[in-house]
Design goal:
This protein is of the alpha/beta class and 511 residues long. It has twelve helices and 13 strands. It has an eleven-stranded mixed β-sheet, with helices on both faces. The radius of gyration is 21 Å and the shape is globular. The chain starts with 14 loop residues before the first helix and ends with a helix.
Amino acid sequence: MEPVNHAMTCTMDCAHEIAAAVRSGVTRAVDAVSAALDRIERTDPALSAFTEVWADEALRRAAEVDAEARAGSAGPLAGVPFAVKGRRGGLRAADARALAGAGAIPVGATSVPGPGTAWQTWGLGRYGRTVNPWRADRTPGGSSAGAAAAVAAGLVPLATGADGAGSIRIPAAWCGVLGLKTTNGRLPVSDPTGLTAPGVLARCPGDAALYWSVVSGAPPGDPLPLRVPPGTPTVRPPGLASDTPTVRPAGLASDAPALRPTGLAPSGPAVHSPDPAPRAPAAPPPDLAPSAPAPHSPNPASGAPTLRPPVPAPRAPTVPPPDPAPDAPSPQPPDPAPHAPSPRPPSPNPASGIPALWSPDLGFATPDPEPLALARAAALRLADLGVLRLTAPPAALRLVDPAPAWLALRTPGADPAPAHRLRATNDRRLATLFSRTELLLTPAVPLAPHGHDGPGDRYSTELTWAFNLSGHPAITLPAGFDDDGCPAGLQLVAPHGREDLLLAVARQWRA
């Protein structure tokens, strides 16, 4: 198998283009589904992204969609093959039902972790452990392991996921695709703790936006103007030369579209800083100073050990420290009701970008140098493009480590009171932050994809599960590749109900 990047480009294998072609009669749903099934048959024995494939049912439904297209009644996702997380029960999820109702065709179920491990960053498919499409000796992440691998390898353009601690965002980052976690409570999901939210994995930002439009009823389209500085010719991901050849992820079917990697010439080192295009007059916060060299992690191929600081064992929730900010709102108990969309602040001046705050660690995490540097470079690139305006807060964001609260809420019989107090503290701090800015940026995952023997003593969820507790929507965007050829991701977090803002930024990043 040979490495691949399906990151952020649109081809006929993007969902919205397939649907447009099927609705207009340029192609047939049967052809689109047959091509996907053929790619799965040829590639999945090496990838093991699927637990089940429903070829006969998918082709029967595709013929029905073709009849709907001829009658002029085809839906907005007519003929789009997609995968559901888990087994056949994934078809009962609200978002899967909405996609199928819009004309998309489920072709199979994707792998999730099997029994035998406490860690969830792997998948067990029909042919064994699911492998990362970029490096077969690494895991794709989890628990939406097969969904991320299938999308990254070009088997399907869309796959549903569920995110209870980072289960969409982590595999999206490690497989180099987009992963959207929706606002907790906006879509129905069977999780009595309220920590899980549905979402999608996609290669094309426009496809993620179409998913959200279909499952939420939100109007389609980009709600923000494209903020590319005047005179900018073709915008490319950081460090990508115009003559950079396209590459493919390991195991990618030969007829799947080959896309350019984000921030990596395929034969060169990972790019750790943006290109030298002039920045906006406002200087980035000190932590984002572009002059700092990006450290490199040891290369496992050289035999040098990768040293990682130990993570303390899970502990019982404790009463969090008082908020450091004197102007923080008065304490409020956690709201058990679904999160309503936050009031929208005044729209920023398009010339200055969307106000955004960069946090390398949320005040408690310990990200490794290389994923941190790649995410930082991606944040700077968004500022270079005029999409974001990076702001310096009065004080660094300092959330309380959510691990004790998350673990307590998921442990039957545990006392939830300390967890609710911790959650309320972080909720107040995030409310203060989002009263001053519109987006929060962090690395998506604090470490690179680990091997199939497990993550050791690290939590890959360090930077993601805080937003399952708080309920905020978040998205992972591809942020380039490390020196081992593994993808990394940038996480964007928005106020409750602002999926549109995340998707608009994603579309501009792709452009």
